Every structure is written in C-alpha cells, then in structure tokens.
Task: structure prediction
Amino acid sequence: MAMGMKELIADARSRIEEIDPEAAESELRGNPTTLALDVRESEEFSLGRLPGALLIPRGILEPKAALDSPLRDSQLSDPARPIIAYCGSGARSALAAATLQQLGFSQVRSMAGGFQAWSQEGRPIER
Result:
C-alpha cells in the first residue's frame, strides 16, 4: 500500500533520532566536528541559517552524500561524523536523516521543529 506524506514522515521519524534545538545548539557549540546540515532550499537558507551550516537541499542530498558518488560533498566524506540535519519545520530533515542513515551515516539526527523552532527560541542565526 502506498504511503501519504504524513505516513512517510512518520515512518522516517520512527527510524531516526530527533533532538530539540536546545540540545542541537549545545552539541554544535561543544563539538566542533558536528555538522549542521541545512536541507532547505537556497532561498530559505539565504534568509537565515544556523551558524556555520552546510546547505545541501533535500532534493539533491543523495548525490551529495552517497559515499560512492563523484558529486559527494567533502564535508560528508566521513560517515561517522556527527550530523544534525534541519529544515524549516522538521519534516524534510526527518526524511534527510533517514536517507543519510540508509547511505551509511551512523551519527545523524534531525532537529525537531527545524529552523522555525530554532529562531523562535532566539538562538543564533547567520544571514
């Protein structure tokens, strides 16, 4: 049976770890190897992002992350690197985290609430 969008996101969330913005900020400050991975579109990214975030829109994640892809981003060369994926609300990043796990990344999490929750809580933003 085919899944709808809500079911697809719920399925992804059942297979990944989500962390809240407070935990994400704490880890990003405390562990300089942790990568903040923004999976929104470039227009969204240009309006504001987590400090130091890498932009790889959800639509091109697989070729930028697959370990055997010639288009792989160098910041995703270590499948054991801690990654916190985020998007606008937490839905695309849940899908991205599940995809990254399937591609062999072992320490990937999704930030619940996404950039919206991060910014509403007054956390630091780059523009």
